[in-house]
Amino acid sequence: MIYTATCLFGLESLLGAEIDALGARRLETIDGRVTFEGDASLCARANINFRFAERVYLNLATFAAYTFSDVFDNVSEIPLEDIIGRDDAFPVKGHSIKSKLFSVPDLQKITKKAAAKRLGAAYGMETLPETGIKYQLEFFLLKDRFTLMIDLSGVPLHKRGYRPERVEAPLRETLAAAIVKLSRPRENVLLRDPFCGSGTIAIEGALMMKNIAPGLNRGFASEEFPLFAEYFDMAREEARDNIIRKTDFRAFASDIEPRCVEIAMNSAERAGVSDIVSICEMDALDIDSDGMRGTVVTNPPYGERLLTLEETERLYRDMGDAFRRLENWQFYVLTSHEGFERLFRRKADKVRKLYNGMLPCNFYQFFKNK
To answer: Is the pTM value of this prediction over 0.90?
Structure first.
């Protein structure tokens, strides 16, 4: 079976490593998506274990599409009846990028019509009820190459389930996991987030270090699909067996807003990591090492929604002064402000381009406090 996993731009290599770890074979990587191959059990294992993916899809067919007839004729040839039952729903959505066929609504109509023709003929019905299981069909048309897929995830994978309460401008869980991974977390080195918001960075770090699968406690659309349903119990049991019960890793999260601290505490409890994540109310500029080795991984206010530009720039200058007190610590800072290094008064050892949703950001990495 051929699968595609989508991700935020910049996370393709991290997602690829996860695919390799599951024993699947990577076939193609483009911006924001990785295509790979594996058996039917991979559907459950990928959805439950992927930390950096947004969705997982089953690829049904790929073909050249220069005209609407190309789309209709090729979709009509796909044996959809092998997966979609006579009563099942099959809505269509999709994207077209750099292709001759650019009208998404027209592509939706043509794809739907072709799928209905195929299924109607297979089941001997002129009108299909579409009252059963929902199979979300999604097309991706890139440079006249049309791929038809079924969404196996349903709710996006970044919604782990531990964060029902939201703070303003929350960091997506998949991106939080990525910046923690890039900071190389390890035992006996404190992970510290002084602008924690809802606590996502610290929680994702703790989930990673305890090897708790991010999708362990949530559901997926494909659990209802007869082709894949039998594999989910086994995949969850395997994930539970892989949890690390004892670790010396610790994370410390703080925020100046009491409401954020309350939300972060509740989220850590729901995520099952409150034993190794400490959360308190504190001004970020009062940060201290307390004699410990540590790594700051943080997503401070950008000046996009939470602070004015002037307030943000003053904060970044003050951060530079405050963080200098942390001898031999490392700093990893995600921000969209292009002048961060100048304001922080240090040149990063490495800068990586990442995206917080559609907002381009830089991930500044300082490997040693000087």
So the answer is: yes
